[in-house]
Amino acid sequence: MKIDLTDTTAGKINKALVEGRRAIGTPAVGMVLTLVIVTDEENAYDALKAAGDASREHPSRTLVVIRRVSRTLRDRTSSRLDAEVRVGAEAGTGETVVLRLYGEVSDHAQSVVLPLLLPDAPVVVWWPVDAPIDPAGDPLGALAQRRVTDTYACEDPVRELTARAAAYAPGDTDLSWTRITPWRSMLAAALDQVTCEVGGVEVEGEESNPSCELLAMWLADRLDVPVRRTLSAGPGLTAVRMDTNCGSIRLDRADGRLATLSIEGQPERAVALKRRDTAELIAEELRRLDPDDTYASALRYGVDRLGGGDREPAEQGPVAVATPEEEAVKAPARRAAAKTARKAPTRKATAK
Predict the structure, then answer these.
(1) d(CA 219, CA 224)
(2) DSSP 290
(3) What's the pLDDT at 291?
(4) Which residue in 205, 214, 220 sits closest to 160, CA to CA?
(5) Looking at residue 257, what is its pLDDT?
(6) What does the alpha-carbon distance between residue 33 and residue 258 come to, in Å, rounded to a whole number?
(7) Cβ–Cβ < 8 Å for 114, 135
(8) Are 311 and 231 in contact (CB under 8 A)?
């Protein structure tokens, strides 16, 4: 069921939601969170489709905020709110409200969104494109426990990662980080199978791909070894190679679907490592609403400290000149870090 409201208010939208639920015979509200999507007309359809697919796992009230550009001075000084209320089959397993803001009201979107939030439920804000540099400082981001951005949609993703690190606040996350969850799990599992010490790592992938940079920073941060970033034709991440004192560990994915895991002294194994769509990524992020400390630590490591590519080689510091005694002291910590590096999502409580 779809209800169109022109030049409306938040109170009328809430009334339309109640009437829509009664009309389709589902007056009870069983949603677990509010998902606020801040986007433009060009990307609204794709974002809504991804949110609708994710709602099968996370029934939610989805609020889509679209700021419409006013072309004349008269339009810019006047305010109007149009809404499209969707319930039932039109909204997946939850409710959807598409908000189009005109004129001065577009600068105060938080005032429109606040009365529409589900009471006593978590709030997640997602910017598919054009995210603010400081999501937690944004008026809409301040309403949320979790703020999701996507540096892959930025013009200069590597520079954006540096800005994200400077403005990071607990609750921030990025879909470029979510994309490498299977890679991190597979690499952590591979290190669990050996007792070797890692001396260096090479991460290969597309140029200006933030997921490649984040994976390289995560490995450098957790293993405390030099990590070299090299370029390939893609798609996305193509290989990770770890040099250890008992042979190399390689995870190669040339076609974006199937990878090969090679560990010295063991047979090669084929691993399903396909590139996931946006619906799967946003569904994964909605499974955890607590701060992601592993992401924060990797992000703050810094892109500039990586070696390879078109950057200057990273300084290896004491790792390159460590004495045998120092290496023996660091070995247990490295093995423990590799075992605990895997992200452990915290599932939210089931809605009652």
Answers:
(1) 8
(2) S
(3) 92
(4) 214
(5) 86
(6) 35
(7) no
(8) no
Q: Look at residue 88 and give its three-state secondary structure.
A: helix
pLDDT digit string, tens, across residues 248-299: 999 999 888 899 999 988 899 999 898 999 999 999 999 988 999 999 999 9
Which tens digit of pLDDT belongs to each residue from 72-124?
A: 666 666 789 999 999 876 666 788 999 999 988 988 999 999 999 998 899 99
Tokens at 223, concatenated: 């293993």
* Radius of gyration in angstroms for the set of CA atoms belonging to the chain, rounded to a whole number: 23
87: exposed, middle or buried (Cβ count in 10 Å: 0-12, 13-18, 19+)? buried
CA dihedral angle for residue 136, residue 138, residue 139, residue 144, rounded to 10 degrees? -30
Closest CA to 170 of 55, 300, 59: 300
Cα→Cα distances 289→144, 279, 281, Å: 10, 17, 14
φ, ψ (nearest 5 deg) of residue 147: -125, 120
The 3-state DSSP class for residue 102 equals strand
Amino acid identity of 349? A
pLDDT of 90 reads: 65
Q: Would you tell me how many other CB atoms lie within 10 Å of the CB of residue 27?
A: 9
Tens-digit pLDDT profile for residues 6-60? 999 999 999 998 888 888 777 666 788 999 999 999 999 999 999 989 988 888 9
Quote the tokens at residue 49.
Answer: 């489709």
Angle at 51 between CA 146 and CA 10, to 5 degrees: 75
Q: How far is CA 268 from the centre of its chain?
A: 31
**Which pLDDT value is given to residue 316?**
35
Selection from 212, 258, 260, 268 nearest residue 236 by Cα = 212
Residue at token pair 């400290």: 305
- φ and ψ at 215, to 5 degrees? -65, -40
Q: How is residue 150 annotated by DSSP?
A: -
Output the pTM of the full model: 0.81
Q: How far is CA 347 from the centre of its chain?
A: 16
Q: Nearest CA to 139 among 101, 99, 106?
A: 106
